[in-house]
Every structure is written in C-alpha cells, then in structure tokens.
User: Fold this.
Amino acid sequence: MAKILIVLYPDPVTGYPPDYARDSIPVIKEYPGGVALPSPKAIDFVPGHLLGSVSGNLGLKDWLETEGHTVVVTDDKEGPDSVFERELPDADVVISQPFWPAYLTAERIARAEKLQLVITAGIGSDHTDLNAANARGITVAEVTYSNSIGVAEHTVMQVLVLVRDFVKQHQIAVDGGWNIADAVERSYDLEGMRVGVFAAGRIGRAVIERLAPFGVRLSYTDRFRLPAEYEEKYGLTFHESIEELVKEIDVLTVHAPLTDETRGLLNDELLATMTRGAYIVNPARGAIADRDAIVRALESGRLAGYAGDVWDPQPAPADHPWRTMPHNAMTTHTSGTSLSGQARYAAGTREILENWFEGAPIRPEYLIVEGGAYQGTGAHSYAKQPVHADEQQAS
Ligand code: NDP
Assistant:
C-alpha cells in the first residue's frame, strides 16, 4: 500500500461551495486532432465541481483510502514545518497542480527516499527538478492537453483586455463614472494588429486558431516549423528565432515550457527591440520573463501592457511588482484550472494512478520522465535534444 501526498490550493475563503453557477459542464468528446480524453475506470466526483482545492481532493481521497492507501491532502507547502515537508520523507507518490506547486527541488527529492511517482495534475512539470527525478528513476507524469484549450481562451481574453484597455473601462463603470475620454485614451482595436506566437505547441496553435478570425496578421517561432498547409490556412509567417519575431509584431503571446533555454528570455535586451507600445501575454511560466525588466518596459512605455497568469514563485508574494505595475491585466494562475479543466485533469490523474498501481504503462503523452530518462511528452518538451513529436501534427 502506498502513501499519497496531495498538495492542493486552499478552499474558498467562504468555505467549500454548496452549489455552483451552472448545473453541468459541456461534454467534450476528444481533444483537437482526435487525442483521447482521460479514461479512468471510474471517477468519484461530479464534473463541474471544485476539485483543485483541499476539500475537492481531485476526487481521489475516498477511492484511494478504500483501496487501502494512506492519503494526506494539504495546502500547507512552504517552510520547514509545513505539512508537505513533514509528510514528504515517507511518501510514495506526490501530486500537485502548477497553480499551487509543491516544489520538488533536488534537495527535497533527496529527502523523499520512498518517492516513486510525481504527478502534475495539469500541465507543466518544471516545479519538479527533472534531472534529480531522472537520477533517482522517479516517474513524473502530467495530464497533457487537459487544460490547453482553457489556457488558449484565457490568452485570447487577455489579449483583448490589454488592447481594448478593459480593466480601466470596467473600473470607471463600477465607480459610477461616465468619462468616455478617460476610458478610451489607451483603447485600440485588435483588428489589423500583428500578433506573434512564441512556441506553437498545443496551446500556441489553439491561440493561433482562435485569433485568426479577428483579422490579425499572425506570425510565430518554434523549434520545429509547422506544416506548410497549416501556415497557409492561418496566414502564418514563420521566424527563425524569438529575436526575429518580436521586432515584427504588436502583440506577443508566450507558450513555451520553462527550460534552461527559455528562463529569463523576455529581458531588457529583447524588450528593447520590440515596437514601442507592444503588448505581451504570457500564460506559460512567470520565470520566462525577467520580472523587473517587464516593470521597466511598462514604465518607459516600451510595452503598452502585460498580462498572463503565471508568476515566479507561486503563490506570488503580496508585494510582487507585477500586482501593481502600470497597465497590467494579471490574474493569479487560473487559466488552466477552470471547473471544466479540473474535471479533465482530475480524471487524468486518476488514470495515471490506476495504471501505476496495476503496473500498466502510462500513456506516452502523459509521461515526462520514467526509468531515468525523458520519455513521451518529456522527451519532446524538456530534453536538451528535443524529439520531434510525430503526433504533434497541426489540426
Ligand atoms: P506543448 O509541448 O504542446 O508546446 C510547447 C511548445 O514549445 C512546443 O511546440 C515546443 O517546440 C516549443 N518550444 C519548447 N522550447 C522552445 C524553445 N526554446 N524555443 C521555441 N519553442 C520552444 O505544450 P503546451 O502548449 O501544452 O503548453 C506549453 C506551456 O504552457 C507548458 O509547458 C506550461 O508551462 C504552460 N501551461 C500553462 C498553463 C496555465 O494554466 N497557465 C496550463 C498548461 C500549460 P517543438 O514542439 O517544436 O519542439
């Protein structure tokens, strides 16, 4: 029997919801490109209910305990006296979400002597030291595709929020005002703008497909070029590098994983080459941007706006400058954890656990590292020498 340590964000301050705004969520039959949805043998939750917080426990606690496992669910993850630190040394499995990540550093992995499986309930496993996991032969898996479309929707929303300057306009309405001139002094139409997508993976491509009908001019960069027919369909211009891309655009959206190559990429030097008054929306990882360089670019007017929902670290401290910098439309890391997304990654987490308990293979698209090496999605996204994903064909 295993000990499963589940780190989740706290329940709402008003308590676990007794009811919901909607009675159900739409049934999605498959992901784009025909990729199969999570297929656990059963689920112990109602799709559309809050699952990502402690009381929701990803719908796993009752099932795991019935199976005889020991389950610890906590939101207390920081500091030497936290529940996470105390329970880690004899945990076999650690589960957390990128929105409230249980940072598994090399030092923590060294102390977690029994640890065999780390699951990211969601997408993006950079909160686990993957080299240390490889060195120990720990399996790391995530629920690929579970919230990609939700993040793409959030991206499109934030592009519009910035370009049209929604935040200020809404505040004027809330405050009882009607000063149109104040409301529109920084408001533009997105139509006709040049939008550049950094990394055209699952989310990047979903953003391209959703922004195309706005009549924008689309371009992108990625390590591998998309098929010619896809580029043609969406009128995409390819650039060899992000340096080339950012010189030619008004709006940049960021969808690369956080790796040694992408950490700190949006720095003073790069921002200085962007068109004055450009916008950035980064729902990928906060550390891809140099925190203070973004603040400087907004203050100088180089950037007209910055949005996204990812920070470094998470949760961000109350005095993080991105909370108060000018012309930001930041959200706390929510794009991938809508109630709809939670239902999919909770089901995917259960599928991974079922496979692991049975000794059955975990789907390659969920695998990041296994058996001491990058595998599946991990071989594609995180390895130093990326493997081209044959399955990653444009829809
Ligand atoms: P994918 O693996 O489908 O796409 C990532 C893309 O990034 C791939 O096309 C890959 O290129 C490209 N890439 C990787 N490194 C580089 C680089 N150095 N330069 C250029 N391109 C690069 O991932 P997803 O689209 O599903 O997710 C992307 C990221 O978004 C995740 O890693 C995660 O950090 C973040 N995310 C955020 C969420 C949120 O809630 N805000 C939720 C889900 C994900 P290629 O394939 O050509 O090798």
